[in-house]
Amino acid sequence: MEDIIEEIVGDIEDEHDIDNDKVKNLGHGRFEIKGNMSILDFNNTFNTDIKCDDCDTINGYIISIIDKIPRSEENIILNIENYELQVVEVDDNRIEKLKVNFVKESPS
């Protein structure tokens, strides 16, 4: 039904829609995301269960884990559940872009 209404009035955003400006699919389980992506959107997009009482965005979450604001030249890589997150762009004390790579679980 939403698709029919969107054909008439244009896009309708709801809680199930993913902001395509914040997620770019690079193929083969690789993505590029913006640091201001909300933790809720990240969890919904990547089927994770990240929790952070003191932060709302992936930027804030990573800064809370590493306990500092990364510099552009640093190679920061974090493993979160089945994903490897790599900081690729930092500007004005914010993580602007990250690469997210799906890491296959090793057989038990």
UniProtKB/TrEMBL annotation:
Residues 24-104 form the Transporter-associated domain. GO terms for molecular function: flavin adenine dinucleotide binding. Transmembrane segments: none annotated. Keywords: CBS domain, Repeat. One of its GO terms (cellular component) is plasma membrane. Pfam families: CorC_HlyC. PANTHER family: HEMOLYSIN-RELATED (PTHR22777), MAGNESIUM AND COBALT EFFLUX PROTEIN CORC (PTHR22777:SF27). This is Transporter-associated domain-containing protein.
